[in-house]
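Issue: ligand-bound run for pantoate - logging full I/O for the record.

Environment: standard queue, default settings, no custom constraints.

Inputs:
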Amino acid sequence: MTETASLPVVRSVADLRAAVRDWKRQGLTVGMVPTMGALHEGHLTLVRKAARRADRVVASNFVNPTQFAAHEDLGAYPRRQEEDARLLAATGCHLMFAPAAEAMYPEGFATSIAMTGPALGLEGDFRPQMFGGVALVVTKLFNQVQPDIAVFGEKDYQQLMVVRRFVRDLDLPVEIIGAPTQRDEAGLALSSRNAYLSEADLETARKLNLILRQAADAAASGRPLPGIERDAYAALLKAGFERVDYVAVRHAEDLSPFPNGIVDAPARILVAAWLGKTRLIDNMAI
Ligand code: PAF
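Outputs:
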């Protein structure tokens, strides 16, 4: 175990388990915030939320290779664990778990998780490996930490629905708590991938919020969804996004489409669009 600005950083499952066992022996509850590091205010809000709900908070910091396809940004994904540990220490986190890839996926690792339900469509269409990898690593992290609660951001809304589903399906003994998306003053959702954006790209990215808001308001007023989705798609391209993977309105609970094309139940609008080599996702309640 090492210490960074008074935050213990553990890298082995054995050290992690020893720390958690000690807390549980004292009757303390444990909260967890799974992350891939490059922490920003969005992650820190999740940590604060976990700290309000549990006596001790573990943040994991692991860039999970199984959720990236070969052509994606695994190698380029920002890594700054020392700074992350300092931020976590100042935010009420009690331990950072930062395993090496070989500790999570040792030679001969042979297990995968396949999901349907909320994992299908949207991100599932464009990043088919993503939710299997997320389900695998988060299940491992839950088995390693054995938290009472875990907090996930609504920024990755489909991921939150996927996590809720496999936790239910696999009877994992952890309560999943969602936390609202943190945005900058112009409404841009905070994301580790924003670090890739130039000033000009940031200006374009900040237009996403208004386009989503207008589409969400139109859907709430009962306008047919195909027209709303088409208009939002066109508005994103006009704003300067180079490519739009999807802009779609779905049921908030299970992400299924509205078969009659009108919002008649709690809904969510979700979008993925590209600025240069950077893919941004966002979503909003309707
Ligand atoms: O949201 C993320 O940062 C990742 O998908 C997660 C949940 C930490 C799993 O690697």
